[in-house]
Structures are given as C-alpha cells and as structure tokens.
Specification:
With 497 residues, the protein is α+β, with helices and mostly antiparallel strands. 61% of the residues lie in helices and 7% in strands. A hairpin with a 2-residue loop joins strand 1 and strand 2. Helix 15 packs parallel to helix 17 and helix 18 packs parallel to helix 20. Keywords: Membrane, Transmembrane, Transmembrane helix. Its main location: membrane. Pfam families: EI24, GST_N_2.
C-alpha cells in the first residue's frame, strides 16, 4: 500500500470520527432539552417584575445602541453585502445578506453594551433569578444576601466581577459570519458552531459561584457538551431578532440561571423556600396531595421518582390506610377503587385526580425538565420496551402481594398452597427475565420499578432467595448500587407493618 493511499485513508478515518463525534453531540443536544431554557427565561422574566429593575436602564441604552447600529449597517452596508452574497447565493443574495447584517449588529451591540453598561446587570439578573429559585446558599458564595421586608435581597459582591468578554469568541463569531453565504444550511451551521462555543459562557457565573477550579469546569462542560450546544444555539438564534438582541441576552441569562437551579436540585440541593415567591409555590400543575401508605411498593415508586425529578418539594404526602372492606371516603373521592398511590393535582385552578403508579410517573414526566424524563418519547420505539419492563416489575409486585396476603390468612387451613406456589413461580420467572435484560440507569421508570421490586421482595418474602436464580447475582449487585443513590437515601427506610 502506497504512502499516499495510507495518508488518504487516515484523513478519511479522521473525517469519519469527526462526523460521528458531531452526530453524538447533536443527538445529546436534542435529547438534553437545554434548548428550552432560553425560551423559559422569556416567560420567567415576564412573570417576575422584580427582575425588571436591574435591567431597565441598561436595556434602554442597549436598545438605542442596537437601533443606531442596525440603521448604520442597513444604510451603508446592506447593498454591498447583498451584491457580494449574490456571488455565492445567486438571487438569494438579498435575503442571505439580512441574517449577515443582523449577526454583525448583534455582535457589535453586544460588545458595546456588555462592555459599558449591561455586563453587571446580567450578573445581578442571574443571581436574582437564582435567589427566586431558592438557591440562597449558592448565591451567598458570591455575594451577601440580605433580608428586606421579609424577603431575600442581593447585597454586596464578595467575588470579583467576571470578565465580560473573550476576544477569541468575538473573533470566532466574526470569522464564522460568512457561513451565512450558504442559504439556510449555512445559518444553521453558524448558529450551531457559535452556540457550541458560547453555550458554556452562559454558566460562567454559575461556575464562579460553585467555586469550580479550571479542571472541574472543563470536565463539567465536557459531560454536557450537547446541552450547552443546544442552549447556545437557541440563545444565539434569539439574539438575531432585530431590535431585541439585548432583551434576549437578558432572558437567556435568566434561562441559564433556571438551568443552574435545576442542576442544583438534581444534585440534592434543598431550595430555601422562604426566598421563593408565593406565585411559584402554587404554580399550575403543583401537586396538592399524595394519598400514600409508605409500606406500599407502588407508593415508593412514586416518591422515589419525585425525588429523582426534583418534584419532592411540590408534594404534600398524606398517609392514608386503605381498607379491603371500606376504604376512607377521601381516598375513594380521589380513586374510586380506594387504592394508593393516588394524587390530587391543581391544574388551571381546578383539582383533578391521577392514580396508579405508572400513570403518576408518566404525569411527572409532563411537569419535569425534558432532560430528566422517566420514559422515552412516545415516538421512540424504546418507550414500548420501558412500558413492558414496568409491566414486568409491577407484575412481580402483584404476585408478591398475593403471596404475602395468602400466607398470613387466618385460619391457616384456608390458605391455598397451590396459589402461593403459582405466584412464587411467577415471581421467579419475572426475576429471571429481568436478570437477562440490560441494567437500567437512573433516572428512568425502569430503574425505579426494579429498585422498588427488589426492595419489596426483600421486605415481604425474605425466605425467597431471588439472588440464586438466573441473573440474580447481577440484580443483587445492581440493587446495592441503587440503594446508594441520593434519591433512595433521602427517602430512607419505612417501618415494618
């Protein structure tokens, strides 16, 4: 094989690996759901007038700056740039020149505004949003937090203000503007490339508050490369909207703070509810009451899932003892079958019931962050696999309950050895089937169901050694790791019944 051929194959392999890496990042970017945070920042800012004050004056100056720059660029550079773009885009030149100028105006406006008057305001806005999210402890790492009229307020800075700009970032942005020469696709690549580079910058203040050293910061970003790419893509796309560049810089800062607050909750941080506005404590979709019996494995599925998704603080847990003969009326009002778990939620001001653990877990998915879903999307074939897995674990729980109920029946002569043997065979077959499947990972409905199933078997059938069956050792090792998960540890054990 010639040296030239070897070199060509080497280049081709490098190209393929780069394409695969880009595809992986793209897939992670979509699945992370981080792209929704810039949009969430818009709604959150509009819903919280307290956030207006830090940015009112800087935004006024920024708007005037952006207007002047746009007027100058469209007056003096639009026709030359459109003519130049026509060389590459033909008749589309007059169209593709528009995002080119918008990008230039956004870059120039951002440089001027953040250098002279908007930078400190964005820092205050980020901290204020974290404060409203109950992240008082995190904010206090970088500045004093005071109490005014019974509410938490920002005080003096403790850490030095951040450097506002990266010269490399500005140069990279300007040099990549010609990507817009390619109609449509070029603009997408422009947003993706710059979004990937600029995304982590939106969390610069977060890293500062976390006191991350450089190596930890790099590791954090590397583990979330796709998420930061999607956030940067969405934020940059909003920044290209005429006359609103700096407004969306502010809303993206709010979105970045919301993302940081969610990351803190995922890591087990307890929000300071005294700092959270009342409107956020009672927002639409809040869980008003969970009718539960702690010893129930189905209830445990729900409460573990709630902790995994950061929803635990939104749940009021009401211990309810169902009766086989006459369940409590308040339980029947929620679930006519008189079974737990049963959830009462407040939706658009009216209460509605959600009951049975698989339904409650799927409901949780509708109110949790996209990146932490328990189930794959309905369009993903893997969702059916998850539902089958959940049906298998629930079936084992049902059989275990029947064994337990039959085993304690009085008098003893009324117990059916045949029924008990049949249910034990079901449990054994189910465990062997689970042992043959790939190990699930948290957070997922599979992992929640498996952990609660093995927990219940240990609790109710201690003489049933499921570890000895096919795949039992693998499940035992997995369960040992599962009970060390923060969500499981926080929930703790429940007393015997």
């Amino acid at each position: 094989m010639s040296e030239t051929t070897t070199r060509q194959r080497g280049v081709a392999e490098i190209a393929r690996s780069q394409v695969r890496a880009a595809a992986d990042v793209g897939q992670e970017a979509v699945s992370s759901g981080a792209y929704v945070y810039p949009v969430k920042g818009i709604y959150y800012l509009l819903a919280h007038p307290r956030l207006y004050k830090p940015i009112a004056k800087p935004l006024g100056l920024s708007f005037i700056t952006n207007l002047g720059i746009l007027a100058f660029l469209f007056t003096f550079t639009y026709l030359p740039q459109a003519a130049f773009m026509a060389i590459f885009s033909g008749p589309f030149g007059f169209i593709t020149a528009i995002p080119l100028i918008l990008g230039e105006a956004a870059a120039i406006t951002t440089v001027i505004a953040k250098t002279f008057y908007l930078g400190p305001a964005l820092e205050n806005l980020f901290d204020e949003t974290l404060l409203l999210q109950g992240q008082t402890k995190l904010v206090s790492n970088g500045r004093e937090v005071t109490t005014q009229s019974g509410t938490k307020a920002l005080g003096k800075l403790i850490l030095k203000p951040l450097h506002r700009f990266s010269k490399e970032g500005i140069i990279r942005y300007i040099l990549s503007i010609p990507l817009n020469f390619i109609p449509v696709v070029g603009t997408v690549f422009f947003l993706g490339y710059n979004g990937a580079k600029s995304g982590p910058g939106y969390h610069a203040r977060y890293f500062q508050l976390k006191r991350f050293p450089q190596d930890q910061r790099k590791r954090w970003i590397s583990e979330r490369r796709g998420a930061y790419t999607s956030f940067g893509f969405a934020a940059l796309a909003l920044n290209l909207i005429p006359f609103a560049t700096l407004v969306f810089s502010c809303t993206s800062a709010v979105g970045a703070a919301l993302w940081a607050a969610d990351e803190e909750k995922r890591q087990g941080s307890k929000p300071d509810m005294s700092a959270v506005p009342e409107q956020d404590k009672t927002r639409d979709g809040d869980v008003k009451g969970l009718k539960e019996l702690p010893q129930s494995p189905y209830v445990r599925k729900v409460v573990i899932a709630a902790r995994l998704l950061g929803l635990n603080d939104r749940i009021e847990r009401i211990v309810t003892k169902p009766s086989e003969v006459t369940p409590p009326q308040n339980l029947i009002n929620t679930n006519p079958l008189g079974k737990v778990p049963a959830l009462v939620v407040d939706s658009a001001g009216s209460k509605r019931a959600v009951f049975d653990s698989p339904v409650i877990l799927q409901y949780f998915d509708t109110i949790s962050e996209p990146r932490d879903r328990l189930y794959p999307p309905s369009s993903d074939p893997a969702r059916i696999d998850t539902l089958n897995y959940e049906a298998l674990t629930d079936g084992i729980l049902d059989a275990t309950y029947l064994i337990r109920a039959e085993s304690i029946k009085q008098p003893e002569e009324q117990r059916s050895a045949q029924l008990i043997a049949a249910q034990r065979n079901k449990v054994r077959r189910g465990i062997e089937a689970l042992g043959a499947l790939p190990e699930p990972e948290f957070p997922s409905a599979k992992a929640v169901g498996l952990a609660c199933t093995l927990w219940y078997l240990n609790r109710r059938l201690p003489d049933f050694n499921w570890r000895e069956g096919q795949g039992g050792k693998k499940l035992e090792d997995w369960f040992k790791r599962a009970v060390e998960h923060p969500a499981w540890v926080e929930e703790g054990e429940v007393p015997p019944s």
